[in-house]
Amino acid sequence: KIGIIGGTGLDDPDILEGRTEKYVDTPYGKPSDALILGKIKNVDCVLLARHGRHHTIMPSNVNYRANIWALKEENCSHVLVTTACGSLREEIQPGDLVIIDQFIDRTTKRHCTLYDGQHSSLSGVCHIPMSEPFCTKTREV
């Protein structure tokens, strides 16, 4: 099952066939919006609008932990995330689609891990390397 966290303009539920909505709660609170369950070309998918369907959540206020937890609870094996952002390379123009292998995160004010040792967190404190932040197999596909 593929989880899709859609960013601005890339969260249209019409991409899913036979869709249903599911509102959930997590140990981290509510995700950005309802989970939209359906299929794309016979593949089970779960779509979540990162900023909410009415685009009311600022980037620094997105509850990333609740979003990831909700997709995990829906048994998503992979998560595809879209984002609209700038580039440090002039040859990459607005509208280009790029599969990245590294990033610089300038989002502030939000929790950055599910492993912070707090009551609602996964157990323990975990140091997760960011030298290769994306799944190599998924990027190859």
From TrEMBL:
<dbReference type="GO" id="GO:0005829">
    <property type="term" value="C:cytosol"/>
</dbReference>
<dbReference type="InterPro" id="IPR018099">
    <property type="entry name" value="Purine_phosphorylase-2_CS"/>
</dbReference>
<keyword id="KW-0660">Purine salvage</keyword>
<dbReference type="InterPro" id="IPR000845">
    <property type="entry name" value="Nucleoside_phosphorylase_d"/>
</dbReference>
<dbReference type="GO" id="GO:0006166">
    <property type="term" value="P:purine ribonucleoside salvage"/>
</dbReference>
<feature type="domain" description="Nucleoside phosphorylase">
    <location>
        <begin position="1"/>
        <end position="135"/>
    </location>
</feature>
<dbReference type="InterPro" id="IPR035994">
    <property type="entry name" value="Nucleoside_phosphorylase_sf"/>
</dbReference>
<keyword id="KW-0328">Glycosyltransferase</keyword>
<dbReference type="Pfam" id="PF01048">
    <property type="entry name" value="PNP_UDP_1"/>
</dbReference>
<protein>
    <submittedName>
        <fullName>MTAP phosphorylase</fullName>
    </submittedName>
</protein>
<dbReference type="GO" id="GO:0017061">
    <property type="term" value="F:S-methyl-5-thioadenosine phosphorylase activity"/>
</dbReference>
<dbReference type="InterPro" id="IPR010044">
    <property type="entry name" value="MTAP"/>
</dbReference>
<keyword id="KW-0808">Transferase</keyword>
<comment type="similarity">
    <text>Belongs to the PNP/MTAP phosphorylase family.</text>
</comment>
<dbReference type="GO" id="GO:0019509">
    <property type="term" value="P:L-methionine salvage from methylthioadenosine"/>
</dbReference>
